[in-house]
Every structure is written in C-alpha cells, then in structure tokens.
Amino acid sequence: NGEDVVMKDKLLPKVKQVSKCSYCENNSAESLKTVPCLGCGSRCHIDCIQCTAKFKDKILLGDDFFHFKCAKCTDGNERFRRYHLSWVDVVHITLFNLTHNPAARPLGTDPANQFGGEHGPQEYSDSHVYFHYKADVARFIDQHWSYFWTKSRGETWINSASSALSTNSTENVPVDGRFESGKAKYNKNGMWALTDDLRFPSSYDSLQQQKTRTIMYTFAEDGSLIELRTQAGNGRRKRRTEATPKAAGGRAKKSRGGGAPGTPLAGHGGYASPGAAGSKRGARGRREARSAWSISMWPDIDNPQGPAHMSREETHAAAQFVIESDRQTVWNDKGYRMAKASHGVETGAWYFEIQVLEPVRPEANLRIGWSQISGELQAPCGYDVFSYSVRANPSTRFHAAIGSPYGEEFGPGDILGMLIYLPALDDDEKQDLADRKWRPGERYRQFTYSRPESQRPLHADNELPPLPVLSGSELVYFKNGKCLGPAFQKLYLGKYYPAISSYMGGKVKVNLGPDFKYPPPSAWNNDTPIRPISDLEYTLPDPKPEPTEPAAKAEDAAADKMDIEPAAKAEPKEPESTPVAAAQPAVGQDLKPTTTVAPADAPATNGSEAVAAEVPPPSEELQTKLVIESQPVAEAAAEPAMKDGLVMSEESAKPMMSAKPVESAKPVESAAVPAETTQSDAVAAPTAQADPEPTASST
Questions:
Q1: CA angle, 61 as apex, 58 and 64 as ends, to 5°?
Q2: Is the CA virtual torsion 92, 96, 97, 102 positive or negative?
Q3: Cβ–Cβ under 8 Å, residues 150 and 225
Q4: 358 to each of 321, 362, 364, 481, 504, how far by Cα in Å?
Q5: Are 483 and 403 spatial neighbours (Cβ–Cβ below 8 Å)?
Q6: How far apart are CA 423 and CA 315, in angstroms?
Q7: Which residues, listed in sequence order, are joined to residue 483 by a DSSP beta bridge?
Q8: Vertex 307, ends 304 and 309: CA angle to 5°?
Q9: Helix ranges (DSSP H) in 201-246
Q10: With 60 as the cut, is the pLDDT of residue 398 above it?
C-alpha cells in the first residue's frame, strides 16, 4: 500500500528494456501482457507480478502504461500504479485488443442503436483487420470505461475517440502514424485498423512524453482504480509516501486567516491573509503559493435533524454502496467503497457497534472506523489522512494507506465496538472547525486548507498534512465486549463520522445506540461520559401559529368600542408560559431538546436547565403614560429570540417596545419571552423587574 511521492518532472527516464522477466527469467518478447520495470528495465509478465495477482486477468493486452518497479528493485515491495491515459492511448489499446483477442470484441445487441449497425472485423487487400469506430471501438471503450478512467462520460466522448483516430492516422502523420483509415484507402466509412498490430501503444511515446507522464491512480484489491488525491495550487500531482504522518508536537495554535481574494470565508474580516506577516493559522482559500503547506478538503456539514442513521447522501456514501431500508444494514458488491453515518462528532467520547453479517460473496472483507467528511468515498476507510480503520481479515489498522497489525480478526456473528475520544477544544480549535463549515447558499466544493511553510515541523515527512493534532485523542476497538486497546492516538482535528468500508459483499448491521449488545464503559479518560451516536438526534420546535385574521379584527373592534388605544389595553390576561425552544445542538453535549417552564422569580440556572421567565403586565400608571406621551419605542415586536435560525443575544432577547405610534399597535392577550438554549449554553430569559418596561405584546 505504499504511495510514492512522484512528480511529473521527476519521473525516471525510460531505461533500456530487456525482454526477460525478472521473476520467472523467461523470455517475454512474445507476450502481449508485459510491463517494463523502471528500475532494471526487465519486461515482466503481468502474471508474475505479485501485487496484480487478484486482477491480472482484467489487464488488457498491450497495456503497459504503468509506473512499475519489480520486487528485486524494491526489496519485495512492488510498485504498480496507473499512468494518466490520453484518448489516443485508449483508442490504441482498444484496437490492439480487438485485433488480438476475438473474445474481447463487443457482444450482444445495441437496442438504443448508439453505436451504429456496421461493424468489424473486416479485412481488405492490405491484410489489416479493420473495425468500425462506433460499433466496435466506441462500444469497447464504453464497456471498459472504468478500466481506463474514473471520470464520467462527456456528451461528446465518441467524437473525442474519432478525433484521436483521424489525428494520428497515416494521412496526418505519414512517418509514424498509428492508424489506417478504411475511408481513405477503400472508401469504407468509419473503418480503422492498426498500422503495426504487433507494436505496443507505449512505443509511440516520445522521450518528452515518457518524462511527462503522470501517475493518476492506484488499484483496489479487485483492480478498480482509486484516484490519487492531488494538492491544489502547485501545478504538480503529489502522492503520499509510505511514512506514517508524524504528530506536529501537540495542538497547533493558529491565528485567524483569510483565503484567496474573492473567496468567502467562515471567519470574520480583519485578519491577515494567508502568507501575510504574522499569520499563524491555517487558511481556507482557492489558490495558494507554491511554498504554502496545504491540503484539499471538503467543507464540514451540520448534523441533520432526526435520528442518526447510515446516510445515503452523496457527501457521505459512495453511489455503489447498498444501504437498506432500515438505514442500518450496509454492504457493497464491488471493490472497496465507503459509507458514513449521518451525524458526526467533534469532541467528547462516542461509541457505536456493528454486527458482522454473512457476506454476499465469499471473498468479502470489511474495514470499520471513523472518517471526516473529506475521507475518500471511492476507497477504503483509512486510505487517506482523513480516516482511520481496522480491517477484518487479516486484522490490520489503516491510516493514510499505511497498515500495521492490530487486534483480532472478526467475521460473521462478531460484534465490533468503536470508541472515539476527542478532548475538549480550545478557542482556536473551535474557530478552526467553524471556518471549515459549509455555508448554506454557497456552492459545495473543495477548498484549500493551508498554513505557512515556515510552520512545517523540521525534519517532518514531505506529505505531513497541515492539520492540527489533538493530543490525548484516541480510537479504541472492542470485540464481543473485549477491549483491544488503542488502535490510533493523536488524531487530526476534525469532525468524525462512523464509517464502514465494504469489499466484495462484506455486510454489516450498524447499531448507533442507545441499546448495545456489549455496552461500553460508562466513562473514558478523566470521567468523560461515553455516549451513543444516537444521542446526536434532535428536532427543531414546530413554528408558532400566526393569529387568524378574524381574531385580529375582533380585537380591533373591541378596542374601538371601548374608545381606548389598542396599545394600552387595561387588563391584559396573565401571560402564558412559553416552552423553551431547542437550538441546534453543539457536538459533545446533551443534544436532546428540553422544554422547561419556571416562575418569574426562579433563580438563574447552572446550565443544565433553561428557564423561561414570565413578563408581568405593565402597571396602570405606565399604560396611561404611554398613551399621553406617545413615546417612540423600539421597532421590532417581542418576537422569539431567533433570527434566520440563529439565537439572538440575551440583550436582544429582552422585551422591546413598538416603534410605531401606539395607536397602530394591535392588542394581544398575553406575552412571554421565548428562549433557545442547549444544556451547554443555557441562558435564562430576563426576569421580572420592579418597574418593567412594557412590551409590545402586552401593550
């Protein structure tokens, strides 16, 4: 699973190739499935390479566009990566296989008639085997699309294939053209053949092309492509190294920073931009200087309303993942993919467990762990720096694609428990996470998280990410109630979700709580209570109904009949108690909504409960004063202390008076001050004063 740091300007020049396999030491000149070693130059048989054993049959004939080093050149640690392929490479590989492998030719009907009716193979007087660019070439590419790329098909992809054929034909490149046109030679429209059907496609590469080929993909265990992440802003495709990222010596203290010009940031204005003098914290932006210490990330998302479950959202689960209707049973029929739970955590001790079910296929495997939102979905959990996992068989822990033995193997019938402990965050860390969040109304896309190069620890690995490390954090696994000890410690700062990776039909049932088959300890690390992921469930209160129009008209008529200003209604009814509305929960605290009512003289609470204090009606003297003096008052009526979903400050939540003349105010029968709170940040509503200011709802 090693991942070399490979830059396009540092690729090894092509060494002199030897037609001898370094594994079996047999002649490989006659084989159509070989790949040259970049170290010794030996052209090795695909069937002899150990790391391709599980998908060697999927590799196409003539395809040697791989960054490969044999076992002898790497002390047994083979390297096998996929280069980026151009359209001419793909078309050439396609014609090579159509020519030499009749079994690979497209079969079956074409009900949509997408690829036309005429097709090959056809032979003419030059003895070349011709194929139709649509019926044969485009159809083969369509059937093997995921073999070449992970990108989606564009609307004009068939035209791109046709253009590659004509541009590299002997008509346009007389000296070294790859393709023969049936139209030019025999007036056969759309028919194409290879100029030299024994010549490998890579042999047409110039020396410059050889040096500038870039590594784009690594391989999953089933041979499917896994795109290697690139780091934005430096113009080079960087790959991960085998070294485990080292902690940056505790939590990184970073001052607030801005992003690139024109990029909206979650932080407020007035702080230094990235790279400016005095800037010591990571910045969120689109483009960074070459010297910036940076990584690409996806914005965090607030937990949704409702109970926690395995999410089907495209930000949380790969499209290939099967999440059954119970939102607990999950599996995947192909190579490793990942799915995450709907709710994540940032601080505290949290727990969930999974039951391993009978696999869909016998070669199945699993990786179970935790991942940030930026964890790659088209790869196993633990593939990148944003996720951590443990594999079922053999039992191995993974982070940043580096594995090491851990714990015990687990299989069908076993219960695996996962505990994550994230210590309390300081102000800088809280602001860091707030800056990473997606803001509704913005386009959801990646951003660059960066810190100045000067903050990179001395002698640190080149691929050490610029993420702060949480000292004291850890991941611990339990098998059937037995603690297996810490699997990972000093996690990177972030919001973590329960994550499941399935390979070839590995199947589990996820239990997010609160009832576990093997309950965890009640507390962890300095008596921090361990809580189930299900505690993250919350709901917003129902909106308060607006008064009906007939009721308002009736009050106006009653006020006119009494010849009294509506705002100075003499005897308002006793105000009713208003329930405390639950605000969106903060991670790591009691997130279940609570509704509490207390009398006006109740003392302030200590944060475990919220109290809504009743507001008494204004005195008769004050009501008369209001009518006579017609004092200007505050414009907003005493609405609930919430605006655009945000809780207002305690001062803003105090009773306010109407700014309109009192005759424009309509009478209401009662008033109360609602308050939004959570257990961690409870604010008591203002209590009754000896001589209270009148509220618009009471006047």
A1: 90
A2: positive
A3: yes
A4: 17, 9, 9, 20, 12
A5: no
A6: 26
A7: 478
A8: 90
A9: 207-212
A10: yes
For residues 484 and 406, the answer to whether their CB atoms sit within 8 Å is yes
Torsion of CA 281, 292, 6, 91, to 10 degrees: 110
pTM of the model: 0.44
Query: What's the one-letter identity of residue 525?
Result: N
Sign of CA dihedral 322, 327, 329, 335: positive
Q: Closest Cα to residue 28, out of 49, 11, 7, 10?
A: 49
pLDDT tens-digit series, residues 288-333: 444 478 899 999 999 999 999 999 999 999 999 999 999 999 999 9
HSE at residue 458, side-chain half, CA atoms within 13 A, is 0
Pick the more confident residue, 432 or 680: 432
Query: pLDDT for 459-479, tens place per residue?
Result: 666 678 899 999 999 999 999
Q: What is the mean pLDDT of the chain?
A: 74
Instruction: Determine which helix (DSSP H) or strand (DSSP E) holds 296, and give its type and residue range.
Output: strand 293-297
CB contact at 8 A, 341 and 533: yes
The tokens describing 410, both together, are 């687990």
How many residues in total does the chain contain?
699
Residue 416: both structure tokens together: 């695996």
Q: Quick count: other Cβ atoms within 10 Å of Cβ 258?
A: 22
How far apart are alpha carbons 77 and 506 in whole angstroms? 27
Q: Is 560 exposed, middle or buried (0-12, 13-18, 19+ CB in 10 A)?
A: exposed
Specify whether the CB–CB gap between 350 and 476 falls below 8 A.
Answer: no
- Tokens read off for 115: 């690829």
**Tens of pLDDT, residues 524-573:** 988 899 999 999 987 666 665 555 555 555 555 555 555 444 444 444 44
pLDDT band at 250 (very low <50, low <70, confident <90, very high): very low
Rounded mean pLDDT, 488-499:
96
Q: What is the dihedral of CA 44, 47, 51, 56, to 10 degrees?
A: 120
Place of tokens 């023969």: 180
Query: Distances in Å between the alpha carbon of 692 and those of 320, 394, 503, 570, 698?
Result: 62, 71, 67, 16, 11
Phi then psi for 451, rounded to 5 degrees? -140, 155
Among 698, 299, 649, 333, CA closest to 502: 333
**Residue 107 pLDDT grade (very low, low, confident, very high; cuts 50, 70, 90):** low
